[in-house]
Amino acid sequence: xxxxxxxxxxxxxxxxxxxxxxxxxxxxxxxxxxxxxxxxxxxxxxxxxxxxxxxxxxxxxxxxxxxxxxxxxxxxxxxxxxxxxxxxxxxxxxxxxxxxxxxxxxxxxxxxxxxxxxxxxxxxxxxxxxxxxxxxxxxxxxxxxxxxxxxxxxxxxxxxxxxxxxxxxxxxxxxxxxxxxxxxxxxxxxxxxxxxxxxxxxxxxxxxxxxxxxxxxxxxxxxxxxxxxxxxxxxxxxxxxxxxxxxxxxxxxxxxxxxxxxxxxxxxxxxxxxxxxxxxxxxxxxxxxxxxxxxxxxxxxxxxxxxxxxxxxxxxxxxxxxxxxxxxxxxxxxxxxxxxxxxxxxxxxxxxxxxxxxxxxxxxxxxxxxxxxxxxxxxxxxxxxxxxxxxxxxxxxx
Length: 398
Fold this sequence. Notes:
By secondary structure, the protein is of the alpha/beta class. The protein has helices at about 15-25, 50-60, 65-75, 80-90, 115, 120-135, 140-155, 180-195, 205-210, 220-230, 240-250, 265-270, 275-280, 290-305, 320-330, 345, 385-395, and strands at about 30-40, 95-100, 105-115, 170-175, 200-205, 255-260, 280-285, 310-315, 335-340, 355-365, 365. Helix 14 (about 290-305) links the parallel strand 7 (about 280-285) and strand 8 (about 310-315).
């Protein structure tokens, strides 16, 4: 039998830890539900993976963070000692996550205290991906993946022959959740770190950052904002401001890239006033047209009389290297830029990638929603709440 896919609790995105700490400090009593969704029909029925998934979840729930891993987290200046103490005794509880099959469909639901279930997400997605791609010919996939990786490296190296823009090109690996395999992600990240160190600036994978001496990258995801829709600490209209303010108080200047599209860029900017625009270092794009989004961001900074050269735009929505370079040529003379690439770095193997997510669906028994700026990314199980959220924030239906 193969060794477990996940062998370290660091083998996940940094923003799971940063959101985890914020929730533990501010809303540790929150109950939550996370639900796995496959957006497009795969070539191989995911339900057939159920027995292997069950074994992987059993193995995941046996893991604890080791002393060297806790030490690595504790050396990050924004990770607090009491959070490290919590992680020292943390272990996933198997009864908080359940998987079952319905025909060809796979269902996975994690339900329980948010600080005990929120970290399941990335591990579940990585497990499903790796089990799925084992069903295809590995030799041809790895050969094609290497060919494409070599092309990406060459595309980046071509930057050295161009006239430099005002701000440098910076690339990050955001590929844990949709990777072909853990070993392939490590190979890709190591290759970029070795071959293009002037442009490759880090990875969201905390384990790889630790093992390879790289900068761990990440701040917040949609679930952080969505949780504030259901906490009842403020009126719904003010949930974005409450989430941003809580983040500022938690991190005091660190981790200053704000995600903008939980209910769309326009609604976000109405809440992202001068106070927040000065406190946060920049913004992250994750849906909608990236050029239009970037222009809105720069226009917003201009109206607030903030020098855009002091801010950063991070692009992370379905990018590949050529798209990242085009965006860089458009914005690189006007503001600092970063590019987080996921699937097209760690699962570009000539095989159709899975379109899977595991998202927060409710908190404290109340529905939550992500509207975003791409209709295909809308997530909400409660149409009444979704309609109300649109009304409150003046977000039109598509």
